[in-house]
Structure formats: structure tokens, C-alpha cells
Amino acid sequence: MNYTKNEVLLDVKDVSLSYDKPILRDINLTIRNIVRPGLDQGQVVSLIGRSGVGKTQLFKILAGLIQPDTGTIMIGVEQQAVEAGQVGIVPQNYLLFNHRSIHDNLRLAMKHVTLESKEKDALIQDYAVKFDLTEHLKKYPQQLSGGQRQRVSIIQQVLTGNRFILLDEPFSGLDALMIDKVMDLLGRVATLHEWNTLVIVSHDVENSLAISDTAFILAREKDKEGATITETLDLIEMGLAWTPGIRENRQFQQVVSQIKHKI
Ligand SMILES: Nc1ncnc2c1ncn2[C@@H]1O[C@H](COP(=O)(O)OP(=O)(O)OP(=O)(O)O)[C@@H](O)[C@H]1O
Ligand SMILES: [Mg+2]
């Protein structure tokens, strides 16, 4: 596979968090800009761990929503300390306004985008066509299925213009068909711009690995309190990234089952 990993886009150093007991400790990870000739190849990274391990807390720290007890999170090519609002977030429960139509929800997401009203509407139309949402634009969130709402929520973040999008459990509660649609959407968002970077926080080993170029395993080590990154999988080097239908691949399935035993 012809690619290089260039400048750092996200650098997490020595992050720890405790409440009444340690939740996260010594979290260190780096995401670099992947460059593939002739392609706008973004980054898709997953943080995988079992329920209760501290994924949502780490998600909030990466989004600048809570401060860790120690450590730093630097984002972007300029490597600035992360602040709330700089990163697009798709939380575990969606952020759509129920009293507004899908179109108006998407318009709201663009309130800080400097475009004329007409241009914003044209952009929404564009994305709606690209991502099969045209027939839903006039509907209200409660008239959509969970998977459709999830996709609107992702597109909403793309429309804000954020290059970083953090997603907390994007596959949970969806059936296989909707999971495929969400995965397809994520794959396409990741190739809209070379700096686009998706960070998926999930306990779903199979689907997270299938969409990612890199996976970090978040787990507790024996006799130690608080979760840390116990393993990093470079799925590009393993020959398991950027391949449609990878879930059918035997080697991929073996990796999935090994990771399931480790978390
Ligand atoms: N505000 C808080 N005060 C004290 N403990 C908290 C607080 N928020 C979360 N925790 C604890 O932190 C731990 C990690 O919670 P977190 O929500 O990050 O788990 P998770 O990995 O996202 O789980 P799930 O997969 O079920 O979403 C849990 O034990 C939880 O009880
Ligand atoms: Mg969670």
C-alpha cells in the first residue's frame, strides 16, 4: 500500500482522570496525517474498550468538554490545546432538536459557517443527495429511524466544517443494514478531505476495526487501577485497512477474536 504518515494532527500526552477512583491513566496516542497519492485520504481511528472502561470520559476529554487531571491534548496541524467546540461530536445519544426539521437541524449546525443563506441550502441539498437523505429533509427527528438520525448527526458535524469528528458508539442500537450505511457514510466522510479525522469510541470490536486505519485498545492491566492503551493496531501495515468487505476476511476475523479476548 502506497502511503506516508506525515504531520501530527492529534497528540495526546500523559492523560489521566480520576473520580473517587482512577478511571484513565497514562493515555498517550498520536494521529498523523495519512497521505496517499491521488487520494484525499483522511484518518479513521478507533478507541476500543469494554463497557464502563472509561471510553466516554476519554471522548469528553478529547473533545475538550472535561479537563483531565493530568496531561495535554493538542490538535490540528498547528498543534493547539483542544477547546470545546473545536471538535465535532456525535455523542452516545444524538444531539438533534426534536422541534426542528432535519433541514433546519442541518442549517443550525452551519450557524458559524460564513456562507450566504442560499449557498448553505445548496450545500445541504448536495449532502442530502450524496447521502440519501433528500426524502427526509422535511421530516422531524422523531420521524426517522435510529440509523437515519445517526447519519444526520454525522452529516451535521461535517457541515460545521470541523476536520475532527469524535463519535461515541456510532454503531450501537443499529441493525446490520444501518451499520453498513453508517460505515459507508464514515468512509466517505474520511475521504472528503485529507485532514478529515474520525475518532470512533466503541466497544464494538468488529465494526470499529473494519472502518479504521488505526485502533487503540483501552483496557485495564492486571493489578493496576484505571484503564490505559494496552495495544495499538496499525491496520494499514496489517493489510486490513481500506478494503471493502474486510469483515469476510479470515485474517481480519482472527484479529477481531483476539481483541475480543483482550478487552
Ligand atoms: N461524573 C462521574 N463521577 C464519578 N464517576 C464517574 C463519572 N462519570 C463516569 N464515571 C465512572 O467512570 C467510569 C467510566 O465511565 P464511561 O462512561 O467513560 O464508560 P464507557 O467505557 O463509556 O462505558 P459504555 O461502553 O457503557 O458507554 C464508570 O465506572 C463510571 O461509573
Ligand atoms: Mg460510553
| Helical content (DSSP H or I, runs of 4+) | 25-40%
- End-to-end span in angstroms? 29 Å
Instruction: Name the shape in a single word.
Output: globular
Number of helices: 7
Q: Would you state the CATH class of the domain at 4-85 and 201-262?
A: Alpha Beta
Strand order, sheet with most strands: 6-7-8-3-9-10
Beta-strand content estimate: 25-35%
Named once each, the bound ligands are: adenosine-5'-triphosphate, magnesium ion
Order of helices and strands: EEEHEEEHHHEHEHEEH
CATH topology of the domain at 4-85 and 201-262: Rossmann fold
- Stretches where pLDDT is under 50 for at least 5 consecutive residues are none
**Mean residue pLDDT:** 93
Cα-atom Rg, whole angstroms? Answer: 18 Å
Largest sheet report: 6 strands, mixed
DSSP E strands, number: 10
| CATH architectural arrangement of the domain at 4-85 and 201-262 | 3-Layer(aba) Sandwich
SS-based structural class?
Answer: alpha/beta
Notes on the protein architecture:
It is built from 7 helices and 10 strands. By secondary structure, the chain is an alpha/beta fold. The strands form 2 sheets. The protein has a 6-stranded mixed β-sheet, sandwiched between helices. A 4-stranded antiparallel β-sheet has the order 2-1-4-5, covered by helices on one side. Helix 2 packs parallel to helix 4 (146-159) and helix 4 packs parallel to helix 5. The chain is globular. The two termini are 29 Å apart. The chain binds adenosine-5'-triphosphate and magnesium ion (MG). Adenosine-5'-triphosphate binds next to helix 1.
